[in-house]
Specification:
Elements lengths: L7 H14 L4 H8 L3 H13 L4 E7 L11 E5 L9 E7 L4 H15 L3 E8 L9 H10 L5 E5 L8 H8 L6 E5 L5 H5 L6 E4 L6 H5 L2 H17 L14
Parallel strand pairs: 1-3, 1-4, 4-5, 5-6, 6-7
Antiparallel strand pairs: 2-3
Helix pairs in contact: 1-3, 5-6
Length: 242
């Protein structure tokens, strides 16, 4: 006689299961989501019930070394600066963005109701690989978004309709365009008072963004180490279908 298997999530119910899943970190939640639709729904409910603000840093690495095609994620909770928020560091490769776009959006959907800051950095400036849909998503799906920082990006694909959406965002206070290319559509739309275009260095950048530059430096060092050590460990690999 075949033993009947019981789904623990269905037994716990929709009220208790999300509470239990809330104790899991992002890597564990991601793996658990793949078990079934019921598990995924319970985990998404757990994520929606969280209240900590989220800052998202998306860093594009182009070091052509072992593992550069992998997308990795670090969620930081350590230290006083993180006690009142969660900080997500997402590392992508611009030359593999077609592969990373889906997993990236899946991550952002988990936090979209709590995101307050989004920083996107491509260093040095590259071709226009970021789609307009990403910026439209931030304008329409992140109700608590207050701050957008864009550095060394080619913004050619942003269209005027998306700029209107950003201008009409009820909570967006600042859009900083730093050393970017093809940002004219942002400047042409005069009803975007939040816009600040910067061509040189920004004084007080750390005060606005936290230890962002330090994280970029660590990312660069990590990429260099991977080039000489093919088996280097990635924090949360998500290249195989996040």
């Amino acid at each position: 006689m075949t033993e009947r298997r019981v789904d623990p999530v269905s037994v716990l119910g929709k009220d208790i299961a999300p509470v239990l899943f809330s104790y899991l970190q992002l890597p564990q939640r991601t793996r658990a989501e793949r078990v079934s639709r019921g598990w995924k729904d319970a985990i998404m409910e757990a994520t929606r019930n969280e209240t900590k603000p989220v800052w998202v840093y998306i860093i594009f690495r182009k070091n052509h070394c072992s593992g550069h095609e992998k997308m990795t994620v670090n969620i930081s909770f350590d230290g006083p600066i993180f006690w009142k928020r969660q900080v997500a560091y997402i590392y992508c490769c611009s030359c593999h963005f077609d592969e990373h776009e889906g997993p990236l959006m899946a991550i952002l959907e988990k936090f979209e109701q709590r995101v307050e800051r989004v920083c996107l950095v491509d260093k040095p400036v590259d071709y226009p690989f970021l789609p307009d849909s990403l910026f439209s998503y931030m304008a329409n799906k992140m109700p608590k978004l207050q701050f957008i920082y864009l550095r060394e990006l080619d913004l050619e694909k942003i269209n005027r309709g998306t700029v209107v959406e950003l201008a009409n965002h009820p909570n967006l206070k600042k859009v900083i365009v730093h050393l970017c290319r093809n940002y004219e559509v942002l400047e042409d739309f005069r009803n975007l008072p939040q816009l600040l275009v910067v061509k040189g260095e920004i004084m007080g950048l750390k005060a606005m963004l936290g230890d962002f530059e330090e994280e970029i430096a660590k990312s660069t060092a990590s990429s260099s180490a991977q080039s000489s050590e093919a088996s280097a460990h990635s924090p949360v690999p998500v290249n195989n279908g996040f």
